[in-house]
Specification:
This protein has about 950 residues and is α+β, with helices and mostly antiparallel strands. It is about 15% helix and about 25% strand. The radius of gyration is 34 Å and the shape is elongated. About 50% of the residues are buried.
């Protein structure tokens, strides 16, 4: 998981005091600030920034002692600005920044003491002071409960505030007597209060506004009609254009505006492009061609700036088009080995990277950088995987990631580029695909449609966050370099790659994040001040709502689980937006073109089924048909993670959040608008409930007869079998629960079946499976002979890290977790002469291959490959006695494979075809003349597979050699 930074600010020391003095003369368009420090500072500095302008250099400018004892004053020329942000300090590290919110002041006279702002100068002889407060409310009736400093509070609930014509605002004017500050709270008269989180609101004289916990002193009326905005933004400056192959990256200095910049208009010849930030990636241009760009800024009123100076760039050669061809064939013939590429085997140490958390996580002490394994390591160990008997490899996401702890690949930033920490010279991603195919191994790529990293998606949207390279944060924020982009292979001394493209000390164009750059009052784990808008989040409005969702999931079985962020480090795409859809579709078509054999779809449940069915799955299929033709296109294996961590058939009664739901097409037409359609589909299916969902017999025999499956209502997405996974505390439990769900899956023979993964063990355990070697053998015997595609998480063949915590993020060393580096166990040489057959091995890998569970696994793979019924067959338990016993059959063309299976215990099969049955485990034969066959068996993990010996479809006989478990 990524590194999570906590928010902070410098400590404050402020005590309220009241003194009186005569005001000094003011310059036009200026403000005179009077300030009383909390304690006896020997010097007072004012550090300020006029609205829209730059801050003074820390610590600011000195204030002069006022004639009013204990007070300091300074007149500030604001130029054309109508106000400024202010903080104070003693020049020795003690600051008053209004609890991290800064002080907001206007023109005229401003008095600041005790955290309150007023417009009455100290030592004034005024006898009666007044104050007006505007409050943004959602209450039907709003009460103000208040007290002047040194005076009494009103009687609860207070006084009713006046309603105003502008929506949501109420106001009240109060008389303070001789006081210049006061305390305020607000309530609805029925027990609901806003007391500023128990601190009350500290206000001064004059006009203040209170909105969402933010106090603005000397404020204008929020209900005043603003004059028309006729002022255009400033013209963008510093436009640069750099080309890499046929992609041009533009960057420029953000424009300013009296109200706010809403975005930019980019001109390239006759083409007009748009950007919400001061940068843009223009992809898919013509090679070796000159392009000229200019940029204009727009504000919300539609005013357009003058154009920037032009920037001209010539594109390079087109990037080599990588092309490959998938192996094809029925995916049910395969068994899958699942690896976290970065943790499997290190074939090239030059691309190892520890990242910013290398030391903090404890990885550095183990010389175990998070990015350690790579494609070269996988290429080097393809024979190990084939020697175990697997014919497909599921690898974690390959796209360029961006977070503090992103070795697993689920924080995608540039979906069009492969992460360079995985590639090496001679071992690119294309090289891996080609090398695997040459050995008869498929590559299933893990893909993410639901979210990007918290830093957005390059070429779609990347947020600009607040940052300042001060004495605390210069270690983190890279100095800006025009045109430079993130490259994780280039790290600074703290392990951080370049991030100068992400931050700005001034609000970016079109910023909608409240209180940009003001201190929050919290601190990072290092003790450094944290600021508003420093870290992306959905509710801070740092992402455009058309491209990203702007909420947190509140109900994991509700509609919001499909339209909100599931984690702070995973920015949730608005997948119902056509621009987002095209970005993802085009990106993943690239990997189809490289020849990958299938996609494992991460977090599939967090995208509405109707969006999958109307957009992503058809686009994927259309591209496959274009590349391979209709028949082979259907051999591309798609399996989705619909994380239903429950032990029942339907996920807490919610069909929309159940795995099997995603295997079906829609049965109703919805609105053309994808957002509306998603809600309509959710409500329609939710109201129908579990009892009105489609059913299927595609996984079941009709007696002893195989029947052609009906895939006419298949969505195109198969599923990870979460029901079996959750119940794999023992094989019997998984078997009982698995078959209970199969009538609600379009075709359960395509289910991906595993015991544990990189996320969870059975029953949502946070540890790797630790049921023991015998239990593992039994689990494997079931998975390799029951319906579905058996899948093994790397290292489980030797019970690697059994009982260890699967993941702890950067809070503990990876070496202590279920994501530990596996390479030490497979060092040495290995050559596979066939699936499950090793012809030679040396070093540690030879020791690994000699383990009993490995031998068991190899033989299971050999047996499964020899019996088509075990790969693609439908099944039945009718007429079968025995705890884990079933019959399977597959018929296609001249192939007819019929098998009787029992795991760990004996069984009797009645009503079966007469004939000779031969056991693939022992070679024993039984001749059936009366439709009944009995198997005697004992031993956990032992197995019998009696195959009907038929003319044209002979039984394979005994397959492989006896092992500890299969004998």
């Amino acid at each position: 998981m990524p590194r999570f930074l906590r928010r902070v600010l410098a400590a404050l020391c402020v005590i309220p005091l009241l003194v009186l003095a005569a005001p000094a003369a003011r310059a036009a368009n200026a403000v005179t600030v009077y300030y009383k420090p909390a304690s006896s500072w020997t010097a007072v500095n004012i550090h300020y920034a006029p609205t829209g302008g730059a801050w003074t250099t820390v610590p600011g400018v000195a204030m002069a002692a006022s004639s009013c004892s204990g007070w300091y004053q300074k007149e500030v020329d604001l130029g054309t600005a109508a106000g400024m942000q202010v903080v104070f300090n003693n020049g020795s590290g003690t600051w008053d920044n209004n609890a991290g919110a800064n002080y907001s002041v206007g023109t005229g006279t401003v008095t600041i003491t005790g955290g309150a702002v007023s417009s009455v100068a100290p030592c004034s002889t005024s006898a009666t002071n007044t104050a007006t407060v505007w409050y943004k409310t959602g209450y039907p009736t709003t009460y103000l409960h208040w007290a002047p400093t040194g005076g009494s509070w009103t009687t609860v609930p207070g006084v009713v505030m006046d309603e105003e014509a502008c929506a949501g605002w109420v106001r009240e004017t109060v008389s303070l007597g001789t006081a210049t500050t006061w305390q305020a709270t607000f309530n609805n008269g029925s027990g609901t209060w806003d007391s500023n989180s128990g601190k009350n609101y500290s206000l001064g004289t004059g006009v203040s506004t209170v909105n969402a916990g933010v106090v603005t002193a000397n404020a204008a009326s929020p209900c005043a009609t603003a004059p028309p905005d006729t002022t255009a933004p400033s013209a963008p400056t510093g436009l640069t254009a750099t080309a890499v192959n046929t992609t041009v990256t533009l960057a420029w200095t953000a424009s300013t505006d009296d109200v706010g910049v809403a975005g930019y208009q980019i001109t390239r010849g006759s083409a007009t492009l748009t950007s919400s930030t001061n940068g843009y990636s223009d992809r898919g241009l013509t090679a070796k061609t000159s392009y000229t760009y200019t940029v204009k800024a727009l504000d919300l009123a539609g005013n357009v700036s003058a154009a920037s100076a032009a920037a001209t760039v010539t594109t390079g050669e087109a990037a080599p088009v990588t092309q490959g061809t998938m192996l094809g064939g029925d995916p049910r013939k395969d068994s899958i080995y699942f690896v976290l590429t970065a943790r499997f085997y290190d074939g090239d140490t030059s691309n190892d990277r520890g990242g910013s958390q290398n030391v903090a996580s404890g990885n550095a002490a183990n010389n175990d950088p998070m990015f350690r394994g790579d494609f070269k390591g996988l290429v080097d160990k393809l024979d190990y995987i084939k020697g175990l008997g697997f014919s497909a490899i599921w690898i974690t996401p390959v796209v360029l990631n961006r977070s503090d702890y992103d070795y697993h690949g689920y924080h995608g930033w540039d979906f069009y580029r492969v992460d360079p920490r995985l590639e090496s010279t001679g071992a690119s991603y294309q090289d891996l695909i080609d090398s695997a195919h040459a050995k008869g191994l498929k590559i299933y790529q893990d893909v993410v449609y639901n979210h990007s990293s918290r830093w957005g998606a390059n070429g779609l949207f990347t947020p600009t966050v607040y940052g300042v390279r001060d004495s605390q944060w210069s270690w983190y924020y890279s100095e800006k370099v025009a045109g430079k982009e993130y490259n994780p292979l280039e790290e600074n001394s703290a392990g951080y790659p370049y991030n100068g493209d992400l931050w700005s000390s001034t609000a970016p164009a079109g910023n909608t994040c409240p209180n940009y750059g003001t201190a929050t009052g919290a601190k990072s784990k290092e003790g450094y001040a944290l600021y508003n808008c420093q870290w992306p989040s959905p509710t801070a409005k740092m992402f455009p709502s058309d491209l990203y969702h702007q909420c947190w999931i509140g109900n994991w079985e509700g509609e919001d689980s499909r339209s909100c962020w599931l984690h702070e480090d995973l920015a949730d795409f608005n997948t119902e937006n056509a621009t987002v859809q095209k970005y993802l579709i085009d990106a993943y078509n690239k990997y189809i073109d490289m020849g990958v054999d299938g996609f494992r779809i991460d977090t599939a449940v967090h995208i509405p089924r109707v969006t999958w069915n109307r957009r992503f799955l058809p686009a994927l299929h259309d591209h496959l048909v274009q590349k391979y033709g209709a028949t082979k296109a259907d051999e591309f294996y798609v399996f989705g993670e619909v994380a239903a961590f429950v032990n029942d058939k339907w996920n807490r009664g919610s069909v929309n959040h159940s795995a099997q739901f995603y295997t079906w097409k829609e049965r109703k037409t919805y609105s053309d608008d994808d957002v509306a359609a998603a809600l309509e589909q959710f409500n329609y299916e939710n109201n129908l409930g579990t009892g009105n969902q489609p059913t299927s017999t595609n996984a079941f025999l009709n007696g002893n007869t195989y029947h052609a499956p009906d895939h006419s209502q298949f969505s195109g997405m198969n599923i990870i079998d979460m029901r079996m996974h959750m119940n794999f505390g023992d094989a019997q439990n998984a078997f009982n629960n698995g078959k209970d769900s199969d009538d609600s899956v379009n075709d359960a023979t395509y289910n991906t079946v595993y015991v544990d993964s990189h996320d969870y063990g059975p029953n949502k355990s946070s540890t790797r499976y630790s049921g023991g070697t015998d239990a593992w053998a039994e689990n494997m015997s079931l998975m390799w002979t029951f319906r579905g595609i058996p899948t093994l998480y790397y290292g489980s063949e030797i019970e690697f890290q059994a009982g260890k915590q699967i993941d702890c993020g950067p809070t503990c060393p990876l070496a202590t977790t279920g994501r530990a580096y596996y390479g030490d166990n497979v060092s040495g040489t290995v050559t596979a002469s066939d699936y499950g057959v090793v012809s030679s091995a040396t070093g540690n890998v030879a020791t690994t291959l000699s383990k009993p569970l490995v031998k068991h696994l190899q033989r299971l793979n050999q047996i499964r490959r020899a019996v088509p019924a075990l790969q693609m067959g439908q099944y039945s338990t009718d007429g079968v006695s025995g705890s884990m016993a079933y019959k399977r059959r597959y018929t296609s063309g001249t192939v007819d494979s019929f098998a009787l299976i029992t795991v760990s215990g004996g069984a009797t099969f009645t009503g079966i075809p007469n004939g000779t049955y031969v056991d693939a485990v022992t070679g024993a034969k039984q001749v059936v003349t009366g439709g009944s066959l009995t198997i005697s068996l004992s031993g956990q993990g032992n197995l019998r597979v009696y195959v009907l010996d038929q003319t044209g479809n002979p039984a394979p006989g005994k397959v492989g050699t006896d092992t500890i478990y299969l004998k």
